[in-house]
Design a protein that fits this description.
Layout lengths: L1 H16 L21 E13 L2 E14 L2 E9 L2 E2 L3 E4 L5 E4 L7 E4 L12 E8 L2 E11 L1 H6 L2
Antiparallel strand pairs: 1-2, 1-9, 2-3, 3-4, 3-5, 5-6, 6-7, 7-8, 8-9
Length: 151
Amino acid sequence: MKSTIKLSALALIAAVSMSSTAFAKNNTKAATPELSIDSKVEVAYNCQIQENGKKRSQPITVMYGVKNGEAIVAQAKVNNEISTGLFRVADPLLNRFVSESAEQTMWTAMPAKAADLRKVDGGKLSVKRGNVHAVIAESCKLDQAATAKLK
């Protein structure tokens, strides 16, 4: 169990230490094409994380980029560290967003159109290690009070 906890802590550091500007224009050449969005929606969640063998609550926020009424990109913010851009992947059961990096950071949330993002729970934040995803935060529940304070 301790090795899982250490992996989760290391994965959290790796996942959130890479900052990206998926919602802003990047002046450097990149393999990813420029992304065009209509608007942004920020949502706050309270998630569970494993730390030293104990579960504790961890607030996170996710900024969604919206195009034509659909969330097409997301960035998770944990302890003021922002994930790379996570791009929407077709999934009939969840809103699933995955990075294009080798780390394959993934965020899942309950299915919702852009107008309902501030009304539904999230899911999990994870990072791919080898052939499995190490869970960083799970059981992410909508924090309505914190979300209301966001722009």
